[in-house]
Write a structure and sequence with these properties.
Number of helices: 8
Shape: elongated
Largest sheet: none
Number of strands: 0
Radius of gyration: 21 Å
């Protein structure tokens, strides 16, 4: 999922800047960060696995780290710094990030369930008394169709997280500008 999201992040950035980029070039740009993305994925997977019993306590942490991929790809940030950057960007916005995480999970979960249910239902209806080979072939076709639908939904979810990153980066830049302006005002008053 991280690698798919990385390609989407590169595509959104190219569209945002008006750059025309081929699919191969998008994949190449994203693959430049493959090692960092793999490490980030493994760290988050370890976090999730180690926190199985404390799911509701860890869910906000996972949401706060949801901007790791855009940080790695767009800011060319090393893995651990990308986690820090994600934490910084979502400061004060944990509920928004958590809402997006829950909505993303729900959309993907429902899509997978519906896609598998419908496609296997069609296979079962079309080939009710078929032999094992025919049923396996039908199941392979059904899984392929379900995979296409799920891929389309994952692309939308990845794009949503990328747009959330841009939104959070914008708010972060505004916070920094306000802080600089307040410091400049404090210095001027002190003189």
């Amino acid at each position: 999922i991280y690698w798919t999201q990385a390609v989407l992040v590169v595509a959104v950035e190219a569209a945002r800047t008006g750059e025309h980029v081929s699919t191969v070039r998008l994949i190449r740009r994203a693959s430049e960060h493959a090692n960092a993305l793999t490490v980030a994925f493994l760290l988050l997977a370890a976090l999730l696995l180690s926190a199985f019993y404390t799911f509701f306590l860890v869910l906000p942490l996972v949401a706060r780290f949801g901007l790791v991929v855009p940080g790695i790809v767009l800011e060319n940030t090393p893995v651990l710094k990308a986690f820090g950057r994600s934490w910084q960007l979502t400061r004060g916005k944990t509920w928004r990030a958590l809402g997006l995480l829950i909505a993303s999970g729900a959309v993907v979960g429902v899509t997978v369930g519906v896609a598998l249910g419908v496609t296997f239902g069609i296979v079962g209806a079309v080939i009710p008394d078929a032999g094992l080979w025919d049923y396996c072939l039908g199941a392979a076709v059904a899984l392929s169709l379900a995979g296409v639908l799920v891929s389309l939904v994952l692309a939308r979810v990845g794009s949503a997280w990328c747009l959330f990153y841009y939104d959070m980066r914008h708010y972060d830049e505004l916070r920094r500008a306000e802080r600089r302006q307040a410091e400049a005002g404090a210095l001027a008053t002190a003189r």
